[in-house]
Amino acid sequence: MRIRRHTTRSARFVLVTAGILLLTGLTAPAVTAGEYPFRDPRLPLGQRVDDLLGRLTLDEKVSLLHQYQPAIPRLGVGPFKTGTEALHGLAWSTDITSSPPGAVRTATATVFPQAIGLGSTWNPELIKRVGSVVGDETRGYHAENPVVWGLNTWAPVVNLLRDPRWGRNEEGYSEDAFLTGQLATAYAGGMRGDHPHYLKTAPTLKHYLANNNEIRRTQTSSNVRPRLRHEYYDQAFKPAIAANAATGVMSSYNLVNGRPMTAHADHNDVVRTWTDQTLLNVTDADGPNNLVGSQDYYDTKAEGNAATLKAGVDSLTVDSADPEPTRRSIHEALGRGLLRESDVDTAVRHILDVRFRLGEFDPGGGPYGGIPRDVVNRPEHQRLARQAAAEAMVLLKNDGRTLPLDPGRARNVAVIGPLADTLYTDWYSGRMPYQVTPLDGIRDRLGSGATVTGTEAVDRIALKEVRTGKYVTAGTGESGAKLTVDGASAGESGQFDVFGWGHGRLTLRSVANGKYVERADFTAVSPFVNQAPQPRDWFVHQQFTFEDAGDGTHVIKYVGYETPEDWDGPNHYLTVAADGTLVLGSPDAAGAARFTKETITGGIDSAVDAATGADAAVVVVGSMPFINGREVHDRTTMALAENQSELIKAVRRANPNTIVVVENSYPTTLTWEQDNVPAILWTSHAGQETGRALADVLFGDVNPAGRLTQTWYRSDGDLPDLLDYDIARTGRTYQYFDGDPLYPFGHGLSYSGFRYDGLRLASPVVAGDGTVRASVEVTNTGDRAGDEVVQLYTHQRFSRDPQPKRELHAFQRVHLRPGETRTVELTVPAAELGHWDVTRGRWVVEASMHDVLVGASSSDIRQRAAVYVQGERIPARDLSASIRAIDFDDYAGVDLVDESKARGDAVAGGTGDWIRFADVDLGSGAATVTARVARAAAGSGSVEIRLDDPVRGRTAGRVDVPSTGDRYAYTTVTGALTGASGRHDVYLVFTGDLRISTFSLRR
């Protein structure tokens, strides 16, 4: 419903509150605005929060711990919900008033490039503007329906893109922690607004922590040793929290070192130490139930929810729109002594703090309460979407100045490919208000006097069922109809366009109405309907493969995503029902209907026809975001779909002036294309203005300056196991990769050239608490204005500990006119050149020489200098005090595990596994080894102390580890040492399955 606006702020507040209560089926309370102190904006925030908190009953406080916080009519408090998705534009939310409750409502709002695309702009100022628009449009929808469109926004995603096969790669910014932190702070800061106290929206960072795989995502544990934890994974989250740009984090599904992040104490122990502001932390959807379900970590929901709250997570996103299980479990936890009322008060205080800062309890909704619904998709937002899409595009290759195209000469252009005339949304996208496809954009740019030929270059086919000799037909209306084997000929209703997305997966678009064929329901025998506007939804029911039946015919297998709890049907192959309906009716190919596939028009043929003789052929290929990896589905390859590769090759043979546009969300192995195609341009799925932005870049109205935020590898074989999170040991990301990348981190070309001269440092020596100040002259040597992204990397030459090959520490996107020279100044606090010292459990800035490397990418370094940092030296290691086993220097085979369910890390090993402690000073001799160990299995194990080598090194001692009966039941064991003196690397070598939390080698 629309809430009528009045001119007085107090009257407007009363009407808004009444409207909220009506939307939730409640009656308006008999209270007057401003009756209670908590409604007085003149009072300090803490006093207002305490006043409201003190008026709540225990039942009312418990009710606020679920995602859907009900109204409290007696106090005039309206409902509140956490979680409006806003990753690259206002996307969707859930509606408690729907039937059934919790239905998804998708917004029609400005759709910006995917997060990976926004990241490739390397432009925090632009990204902050985008975030501000998203905040405004969220407020606009909230003004219309505050029950559905909550102001707690779940964005940005700041998980590091350490592996490009992650199905959710599109949601993150970069593989680099520093860059991610800068961009996340910008986007969240825009959504938050610039008011010193009030919030436009309350951004929540996703997903804390070390979450970069979808396979078994609630069950896999990310092994994260302390150095990588502090130097890499935490650094993506910390900046936005420390800058007060974000108001909390969402816990991730995975475990870290054996403990589920849903109930991980680091939400309190780490995240809250980054800021003095109050944070509202939330769980991911159904995370609390995983604790007693797939993770089997707690026996009851009462235990799991109590642990989650005590760990510092305040709001439980669970059981969809039904808060009752949460309420019951919290009351049970209170009754069992697992929680105290003060624990509930702490979480509720965090929740209320954010609600107050959103202006909920102020007359008029606070300074952002007046943003109207008509702010959505305003012309200035459309212009910003176009600018962002253009700035995000990355020119990967441009031989012979193929680009930009001259609009005066390129008058006959072929626009070819499966993404040439369509735009796709993704799971976390809103609905586009309008769509400008690549074909649209190029046609608009060239105008009516040019010839622009468009073809999607896909096969158009008809399917004739062998038994009856009849064709499969589809409905011609907007909603389509059940596919039926009843056609006497392959007319328009019997034709389908076949889109290939790799691994033989196909989608079928009906020519009859332009809609995609999808499985209609979850029944065991399911019909198929041509009704989907695009491949979509959680299970993506629009996917098929054609299998050769061996006699020139085919059977069709349905390969949409499903899970057993949603569908128990045994059938995956299509058959024909008695009434001629095409249904899901056979478990195997033997029982499937057989079809002859008649090609009406061939995709490659149409592409070649269009490309032949054209002034330029623009081939637009890429991914379908719901198919080529997404939430719950990782990729197995970074390659283009096979049919798309063949398309590019065919067009290149037909037209030497071929430009390939890759529109996807992840690094791709374009090795053939790099060797054979003159120009390659990459873009993410860039939203409603994709086509105009692409034309801007292709025809030189915008000089491309996007830069890659991930390493692009040459082959899938360049990557280690997806589940190995130790990027240093496995050589992942630009910081540690030893190979030759296809395109390096930071890469991107321009239509201009840029010369770097005269790198200067303010001083060749910097104190450990000082600042490295660098300046470099950058000149545009081209004939057109353009942006250059100046990047500063460092490398520490000498260290006790292994260091990254290079590490980004500063960047600046600068605009230069032709011939213009600018002095670019870049600063790096010396503290940021430090690393985590595992020997003492703290940050250290070592005394060392650092290379300062400035250039156009991580591999294109144009200027070098060196600075000596006057830090400290890490002394030889002392193991005489109790040492955490996880603070090792190196390891083989071990797992990192939870010492207890509440806190602490331990090391779990089996026979032959080891951990190393480097450069240990044993002095004149250590005589005793003491270790805190656990062994769940029967029988005993042991830990040997070896010097300098885990296999051939001399054995200095050993401790036997008895069975303790439980992985959390630790005991202390001791053993004698002999010959353990002087400086050595000390190895702890395991025999049998056991855990070790701490140990010491004492004199």
Output the keywords.
six-stranded mixed β-sheet; alpha+beta; 19 helices; 5 domains; 1003 residues; TIM Barrel; 20% helix; Trefoil (Acidic Fibroblast Growth Factor, subunit A); Rossmann fold; six-stranded antiparallel β-sheet
Fold and architecture overview:
This protein is α+β, with helices and mostly antiparallel strands and 1003 residues long. The protein folds into five domains: 9-374, TIM Barrel, CATH 3.20.20; 394-457 and 602-692, Rossmann fold, CATH 3.40.50.1700; 460-601, Trefoil (Acidic Fibroblast Growth Factor, subunit A), CATH 2.80.10; 754-870, Immunoglobulin-like (Sandwich); 883-1002, Galactose-binding domain-like (Jelly Rolls, Sandwich). 20% of the residues lie in helices and 27% in strands. It is built from 19 helices and 50 strands. It has a six-stranded mixed sheet with strand order 12-29-28-27-13-14, with helices on both faces. Strands 40, 42, 43, 45, 48 and 50 form a six-stranded antiparallel sheet that branches. It has a five-stranded mixed sheet with strand order 31-39-38-33-34, with no helix packed on it. Helix 5 (124-144) runs parallel beside helix 6 (177-192). The longest helix has 21 residues, at 124-144. It is globular, with a radius of gyration of 30 Å. The chain starts with 8 loop residues before the first helix and ends with a strand. Mean pLDDT is 95; it is low at 1-31.
